[in-house]
């Protein structure tokens, strides 16, 4: 996904994409409503935070996050992806402004 962040709109990036015949769709700047990974990270964070006590090392944290991610039901992730058409429609209807997502 390319939003309007400078690294995505730099001339060299645009030229490279054009040379590779890659079309980039217009994308609202600052559009976390349209980025499913932001919501997946939120799922992970909300589930991991209550279990942070006792984390003493980077490895402990890594293992906690692995266990927590594995415990997120696939159904929850599927529902997130399946919600994308509604999210897109909502963003269009509010002309790119914030939504309730």
TrEMBL record:
Residues 3-60 form the Tc1-like transposase DDE domain. GO terms for molecular function: nucleic acid binding. Coiled coil: none annotated. This is Tc1-like transposase DDE domain-containing protein.
């Amino acid at each position: 996904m390319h939003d309007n962040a400078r690294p995505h709109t730099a001339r060299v990036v645009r030229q490279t994409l054009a040379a590779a015949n890659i079309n980039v769709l217009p994308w609202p700047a600052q559009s976390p409503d349209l980025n499913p990974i932001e919501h997946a990270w939120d799922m992970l964070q909300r589930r991991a935070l209550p279990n942070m006590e006792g984390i003493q090392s980077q490895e402990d944290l890594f293992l906690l996050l692995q266990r927590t991610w594995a415990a997120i039901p696939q159904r929850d992730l599927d529902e997130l992806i399946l919600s994308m058409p509604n999210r897109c429609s909502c963003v269009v209807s509010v002309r790119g402004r914030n939504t309730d997502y």
